[in-house]
Amino acid sequence: MNATSTAHTPQERRAATLVMACVGVFVAYLPVTTVSAGLPAIQRALDASTSQLSWVSDAFVLPMAALILTAGVFGEVHGRKKVLQAGLALSGLGALVALCAQNVQVLWAGQALAGLGSAALLPTTLALISHAVPDPRERGKFIGLWATALTAALALGPVVAGVILDHADWRWIFLLPVPASLAAMACAARLLTDSRAPGSRRLDWPGQLTAALAITALVYGIIEGGAGSFTDAGVMTALSVAAVGAVAFVLVERGGPSPMLDLTLFRSPAFTATTLIAMISFLGLIGFFFVLSLYFGMVQQLSTLDAAWRLLMVSMMPLVLGAPVGKLVHRVSPRLLIPGGLLVATAALLSLTDIGADTSFGSLAWRLALLGLGMAFVITPMTATAVSSVPFHQAGMAAAANNAFRQVGGALGPAILGALLSTRAVHALPGHLTGAGLSGPTVRQVTSVAESGGIGAVGGLDLGADTPRVLGALSEAFLDGLHLCLVVSAALTLLAAAVGALLLRGPRRTARPVATGPRPAAAQAPSLTGGPTAG
């Protein structure tokens, strides 16, 4: 046996697949919190309006949410290694464009390219694991490590941004994905062999177009409606297009010969539950993180790095517990793990409803850690159950669908909760201004600025001796909005727990590979890893 063949045993190939999957999802998720933490610095440097600033994040999320299903199909038809490499290349290119941006429009373009890369990486990395580890009992452990890498990216992002912004220009927060993508591409070229889904799967262009149209129009309509008014003609048109696109997608997928999303997957209660839980819980939780970041900046006046340490309390628990929880997936019923974790997260969110402007780090820390503990028992079991609840050959499709629903929820969360926060704060502001002893003309001036430019615009007013009282009233009004958002987030998380309790029954037994004999050649999943093919 030559050196090349002995260097890549099945165990080593599987380990290499896991490493590349973890690196891929790390690169995909790193921009999410890095950019969010850097938004105040970007706004100051580029003199961006609130609307322009919101699209810095949304330009990344929108293509990711719209094209995840499409990217999953491309991987199954054209090869998962090719799509992984393309995703890494787009992520690195997008970061490079953002790194060189001199205006907000170029920054949007860079974020959109990075979002396309993440759309390719998320379903492909899970599909690599699913096919390298066909036994669902063992797969949970590997998905736990994948979820740990995802959480590590979310945890590291704000810290990286905080350190860089303390010492350098805002553009340098985009540097890390560039060498990370290049190194991952080089390793993938060496370690992975290409693979496709078994059978005669073909690209489903009508399904891909209608899905992208529906998701894009929905997210755009919610974002613009939250920033302005849901009665605007453009917003109503976008939401109408989303509804028509969703209906068209269902009709196309029901009659298509090779559907992008086989709707029969929803006959599995566990798959249906995990997709709904992914969307509902991430809508509430990502929206909560958005308003919490604003609380740290606008109310507590914390630096980027100080805010990052507080957010780290949430992400540390899933980071530490991701792999151990993965081992529990097939020992403890997901009907207990997932709703139980969501109930803990609900309790943590409700415990935060009494926070104020002077709430200490210690008082926040245990509640944020409790929220992270709850999510640690949701993220890994949710993903593992979605993949294991369908037949083996549909695991990649299930992974892409779960990620798509998760990203749609994550995209809608900041828009919906941000609109709630702004509406409640603006409504409460006049009362707090009056309570602070300010005169009628000052109250009307500040309220007018808040109604036209948002609550952030009030913070820039210079009203002489009245400024401290105005800022104090603004903080109180913001807290009213924050407390409402916390209650809504808790209600959404509780709803997700109820969905899990009603629908989850555990993975389908048919998801396991048949052990009575070799599979037919057409149904065998090719090896996903290994060194260069020997001559």
From TrEMBL:
GO molecular function annotations of the record: transmembrane transporter activity
One GO location term (cellular component): plasma membrane
InterPro entries recorded: MFS (IPR011701), MFS_dom (IPR020846), MFS_trans_sf (IPR036259)
Membrane topology: Multi-pass membrane protein
Region listing for Disordered, in residue ranges: 510-535
The keyword Membrane is assigned to this record: yes
Gene3D superfamilies noted in UniProt: MFS general substrate transporter like domains
Bilayer-crossing regions: 15-32, 52-74, 86-104, 110-130, 142-164, 170-193, 205-223, 235-252, 273-296, 308-329, 336-352, 364-387, 408-429, 481-504
Residues in Major facilitator superfamily (MFS) profile domain copies: 17-508
GO BP: any one term: response to antibiotic
Keywords annotated in UniProt: Antibiotic resistance, Membrane, Transmembrane, Transmembrane helix, Transport
Keyword Flavoprotein: no
Location of this chain's protein in the cell: Cell membrane
This protein's name: MFS transporter
